[in-house]
Every structure is written in structure tokens, then in C-alpha cells.
């Protein structure tokens, strides 16, 4: 039997002072192009989830967050092509710098209830209600 080897991805709901959450739009030409997603990405071998998220925030948005400011919030478990995605969602309210779209097509700040109107990856859909309850 093939061992179960999930794709481990970390993502974060960056929450501003008005309770809005940052989403970024995936660029054209990539899988799930144009969908709105939480900043984040794959955990590399040997990395902790928190270190991976700190790295992704710097790479994707040019902001600095401390691992201690990343609060584990929810997770998603979803088939993704021939893999199985485990997505760990953190909440973060404190960072340094102003997010800029270094990889994404665009950024937007929205309340969780507004996410239902956006096209998001299937794994993210159950996370919207959880964020509504949480924030
Ligand atoms: N960052 C992020 N990834 C998500 C979300 N939802 C979701 O299904 N994913 C999936 O999780 C994986 C994230 O890995 P990634 O960001 O490193 O990969 P990528 O496809 O953008 O590009 P890459 O493999 O060229 O780096 C992608 O397959 C992405 O579609 C989300 O809300 N945020």
C-alpha cells in the first residue's frame, strides 16, 4: 500500500484593525488561476509550519511576522488532483510592513462574509464560516 503523503500547506488570515482579512488573487497560468486565496504556501522539508508561513509572508507580500504572532485557527482537508491537501490556517493580527502583491495579481481586504461572493479554492470554502465565527 502506498503511504499517505499529504501536501502540507500553511495559510494565514491577516486581520486588520477593522476586522478585514487579506486575500490574494492567484496569477494567470497557474493551477486555480484567478481564484482568491489566503497568503501562504507549501511547507518545505525540514521546516516548521510557522517558519514556512513567516517565509511565505516575506516572499509573497514583503511583510515580517513573528512565529509567536501566528495563532492556529482552523484546517482544511481536501483532495487536490492526485494529492490530498492539508491546509493549516492561522490568524495573525500583528506584522511589520505594508502588504504588496509580489506574486499575486491583486490583493483585497474583505470581511469573512464577503468571501462567499469571491471565487476561492474548494478547500477554502469551509474555512469562511469558521472565520466568520472566529473574528
Ligand atoms: N496559499 C494558499 N494555497 C492554497 C489555498 N487554498 C488551496 O487550495 N491552496 C493550494 O495549496 C497549494 C499552495 O502551494 P503553493 O502556493 O506553494 O503552490 P502554487 O501552486 O502557488 O505554486 P508553486 O507550486 O509553483 O509554488 C496550491 O496547490 C494551492 O492551490 C489558500 O487559501 N492559500
Automatic annotation (TrEMBL):
Its EC number is 3.6.1.55. It comes from the Bacteria. It is an enzyme of class 3 (hydrolase). Its cofactor is Mg(2+). Gene3D superfamilies: Nucleoside Triphosphate Pyrophosphohydrolase. It holds the Pfam family NUDIX. Residues 5-132 form the Nudix hydrolase domain. InterPro entries: MutT-like, Nudix_hydrolase, NUDIX_hydrolase-like_dom_sf, NUDIX_hydrolase_CS, NUDIX_hydrolase_dom. SUPFAM superfamilies: Nudix. One of its GO terms (molecular function) is hydrolase activity. It catalyses: 8-oxo-dGTP + H2O = 8-oxo-dGMP + diphosphate + H(+); 8-oxo-GTP + H2O = 8-oxo-GMP + diphosphate + H(+). The keyword Nucleus does not apply. Belongs to the Nudix hydrolase family. PANTHER family: 8-OXO-DGTP DIPHOSPHATASE, NUDIX HYDROLASE FAMILY PROTEIN. This is 8-oxo-dGTP diphosphatase.
Amino acid at each position: 500500500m502506498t503511504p499517505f503523503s499529504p501536501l502540507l500547506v500553511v495559510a494565514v488570515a491577516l486581520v486588520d484593525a477593522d476586522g478585514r482579512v487579506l486575500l490574494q488573487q492567484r496569477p494567470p497560468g497557474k493551477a486555480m488561476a484567478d481564484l482568491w486565496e489566503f497568503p501562504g504556501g507549501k511547507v518545505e522539508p525540514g521546516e516548521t509550519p510557522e517558519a514556512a508561513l513567516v517565509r511565505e509572508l516575506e516572499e509573497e507580500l514583503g511583510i515580517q511576522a513573528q512565529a509567536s504572532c501566528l495563532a492556529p485557527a482552523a484546517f482544511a482537508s481536501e483532495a487536490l488532483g492526485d494529492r490530498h491537501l492539508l491546509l493549516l490556517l492561522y490568524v495573525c493580527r500583528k506584522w511589520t510592513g505594508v502588504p504588496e502583491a509580489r506574486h499575486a495579481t491583486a490583493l483585497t481586504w474583505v470581511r469573512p462574509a464577503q468571501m462567499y461572493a469571491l471565487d476561492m479554492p474548494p478547500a477554502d470554502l469551509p474555512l469562511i464560516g469558521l472565520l466568520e465565527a472566529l473574528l
